[in-house]
Amino acid sequence: MTTQNPFVALKEEMDNLVVGHEEVKVALLLGIISREHIYIEGPPGTAKTMLAEIVSGAASLRFFFYQLHRDTRLSELIGDLVISKETTDNGEIIKQKVVKGGILTSEICLLDDISRAPGESLNVLLRILNERKFFNENIPLLTAIGTSNPTADEYYNEPLDPANLDRFVLQINSQGLSYGRKWDEAKKVIKLYSERSSDYEVPARVSREVFDEYFEKLGSVDIPLVVQETLAKFVATLIEDYGCNETNSLISDRTFFVKSLKIMRAHALLNDRDHCTTEDLNALKYMTAFRVPEEVFQQLDQILDDLTSKKKKTGTDRVS
Hints:
The chain is α/β, with parallel strands linked by helices and 320 residues long. It has helices at residues 6-17, 22-34, 48-58, 75-78, 119-131, 162-165, 176-179, 183-195, 208-218, 225-240, 253-270, 294-297, 300-313; strands at residues 38-41, 63-67, 79-88, 91-100, 108-112, 133-134, 137-138, 143-148, 170-173.
């Protein structure tokens, strides 16, 4: 492992400009390390776009922002469509070419109001994000961030279809400081922007090569048996004790028996470890905001604490 964790620098830059919003900050870092996509739901003005821009700038990554709408066309997301006509001995041939742009050339993209996209564009978009390919060509994308306003009536917003929502492994419900009644942090925001120069530019702190290096490390992060067993117990607890089932939750095998391991490994790397401990099960908080009923999510800290504290009391939370 390197002596200095490069993700500390990215976190510092986010903290320099944005007070609070810790869950969004950590989710962004986990998403970049694991190369998984992120869904953030929250009211306007809660730093969703700003944090993504800060990470992109501090990491020297190409950034693409697009606000989706009911008439969004795929060409607005992937680049320009160029139609050309060629005359041959057999008549005219019409050719269509894509001049790549948008999500095809970005390394981080933010898709605002993603639930507003029409089905045809959204389906193709999600396929590109899932495969990270356009036809047979790889794209450089590390992480896509889909954002949406709350589904409350005043925002005139529809929820993302569960099958589409599940494509975003990391899921965050960002209330913001005001709606979250975090008044001490709100005072810090006022103080910060009363003193900070308006022309502050985010300096480049790390490079794309760092992310490639950490992504290669990801698969070699050890997951001890005790951590595997606690993860299985976590899923069983949600289903057996809290009534999560196919009608009210998105606890899929793909997510919790495959993808969660990837996020836990990313959490270990974020904390300068080459092995997982039960502490990394806390990363499951960044995966469950819209996968379990709200009343269950509100108890998640206690559920995880109960499971991990039992292991620590028995002295099994260590690498053999």
